[in-house]
Amino acid sequence: MGLFAVKTSFPVDGRTVLLTGASLGMGRSVARLLAQKGANVVIVARNIQRLEEALEHITTSPPQPKPPASSLKPPPGTTILHPT
Fold first, then answer.
1. Are 28 and 58 within 8 A, CB to CB?
2. Residue 21 DSSP SS3
3. I need a labelling partner for 47 at 20 to 30 A (CA). Which of 24, 25, 64, 68 fits?
């Protein structure tokens, strides 16, 4: 089971995220995903050419659609312990 057995949800819409090593591989993929979810992404890399390519890759990704507000409501009978 391990770490990946639990699904967590951390809202990033409107938050600023700084990623180092974001010009390739996992960093680039995470930057793209966070940008699609509405985060303000700041990327840092050692190679300017790869950094510019990553920026192009991230900014040309369409944002992910947000679920309708009705799907975010708790089911009937749910007790909310900590309202936000």
1. yes
2. coil
3. 64
User: The tokens of 3 are what?
Assistant: 């770490």
Burial class of residue 38, CB neighbours in 10 A (0-12, 13-18, 19+)? middle
Which distant-in-sequence residues (6+ apart) come within 8 Å of 38 by Cβ? 12, 13, 14, 63
State the pTM of this model: 0.63
Are residues 35 and 58 in contact, defined by beta-carbon separation less than 8 angstroms?
yes
Is a pLDDT exceeding 60 seen at residue 44?
A: yes
Closest CA to 67 of 41, 39, 37: 37
pLDDT-derived band at 31 (thresholds 50, 70, 90) equals very high
Q: Which among 66, 42, 70, 37 is positioned nearest to 54, based on CA atoms?
A: 42
Of the candidates 72, 74, 77, the residue with the CA atom closest to the CA atom of residue 11 = 72
- 2 versus 80: the higher-pLDDT residue is 80
